[in-house]
Design goal:
Blueprint lengths: L1 H5 L16 H4 L3 E6 L7 H11 L2 E6 L3 H10 L8 E6 L3 H6 L3 E2 L23 E13 H6 L8 H4 L8 E4 L5 H28 L3 E3 L2 H8 L4 H6 L5 E5 L2 H7 L10 E18 L5 H11 L2 H6 L1 H4 L2 E2 L8 H6 L11 H19 L2
Helix pairs in contact: 8-16
């Protein structure tokens, strides 16, 4: 998740990487994970896997999720690694339609909530985490102005919230795209353009990416306060309020931001065994590890996402300040694949011109 990067989390660029270059990848003792830039895991947790499995893990980061998926597709005949992590439900059909993954039913999959198993019949991908893209609000602003925070999408287009919202470009940003998909899920194929016309008329501001929106334009974030930001509503994640508490300096006693839970779109991230993986057995072991209780409970404070395994504990800050949405908007990956590019094109013409 971009939120993890922007809120000061230190990411690992390569974990347990081998000293003997590419030759180790084809050997039985090194397994290579390809991912987006937000991949992170505690060193001790990764060390446990390496000790228990006998494999060393090499991590290759390939930019944001869209860039990483596209590169993996282009190199599928001679893949960079064995496992790909980070394809989400907005890009899943593109990866599956291009034959990026081979089938593998992970050990422990019976402990993963069925709601997240979007390829359950073929097991080409294994769900690893989920999160919600939602509008966040600056609690102080709304208290000072004696105005109720928006509850759902409809509120954002009302006069009371004019010139308050900043969002990301749907063509360049994962949360921006997720917010667009959320409005399409809410209002349907015919209704979402009219909704965005209302948002535009109500003064929505669009910036290129999450970092700018959250840390420069949003008045509720630590970065935004320092920058003198004046937008008290931002498209971000349900996990952003806990991050504000965890990384706060000084640490606040409560989250300065909240989540408009009626604006959320559910994002699910998957891992898959790459077609033509050189170390298939190592790749399978690594996928099993990604849905193990140890990794699932380590994940929230490293990548600011929620576990998919039943019974995996989440940090107290998540429970208190950023619980997952109870009824988020969702969309079938096949529907996303069929309409995403045209929607983004229409959105661009409608909102940015």
């Amino acid at each position: 998740m971009a939120a993890a990067v922007g809120l000061g989390l230190v990411m690992l660029s390569a974990c347990g990487s081998s000293d003997d270059g590419g030759s180790a990848q084809s050997g039985s003792k090194t397994v290579t994970l390809v991912s987006h830039d937000s991949w992170a895991v505690s060193k001790s947790v990764l060390a446990d896997f390496e000790k228990q499995s006998g494999y060393r893990v090499k991590v290759l980061k390939d930019g944001d999720a869209g860039q990483a998926v596209n590169k993996a597709i282009l190199t599928k005949d001679n893949p960079q690694g064995d496992v790909f992590f980070g394809v989400d439900n907005t890009l899943l059909s593109r990866a599956l339609d291009n034959g990026l993954f081979q089938s593998y039913e992970a050990q422990g999959l019976d402990q993963v909530d069925g709601r997240y198993q979007l390829d359950a019949g073929k097991h080409r991908v294994t769900p690893v985490d989920h999160g919600d893209i939602c509008v966040n609000y600056d609690k102080k602003y709304f208290a000072d102005h004696k105005l109720a925070p928006p509850a759902g999408f409809d509120d954002l287009a009302k006069p009371a919230y004019k010139n308050l919202l900043v969002t990301e470009n749907a063509s360049t940003s994962s949360p921006g795209l997720g917010f667009l998909l959320g409005t399409a899920a809410k209002y349907g194929d015919e209704g979402w353009p009219d909704y965005w016309k209302k948002l535009k008329a109500n003064g929505v501001k669009v910036v290129d990416g999450w970092e700018q929106a959250y840390n420069e334009e949003f008045s509720g974030s630590a970065g935004g306060r320092k920058a003198g930001a004046d937008r008290p509503l931002v498209v971000s994640y349900a996990s952003s309020p806990p991050a504000e508490v965890i990384y706060g300096d000084p640490k606040p006693t409560t989250a300065p931001t909240g989540v408009a839970t009626g604006t959320c779109f559910r994002q699910i991230e998957f891992a898959g065994l790459l077609s033509n993986a050189k170390n298939g057995q190592g790749g399978k072991a690594l996928i099993d590890f990604l849905i193990s209780k140890e990794f699932q409970e380590d994940m929230p404070l490293n990548m600011f996402v929620y576990p998919v395994a039943k019974g995996a504990a989440v940090p107290a800050e998540f429970t208190e300040y950023g619980p997952a949405a109870e009824d988020p908007e969702t969309m079938d990956p096949a529907k996303i694949a069929a309409d995403r590019d045209q929607w983004v094109k229409s959105w661009t013409s409608l909102v940015l011109k």
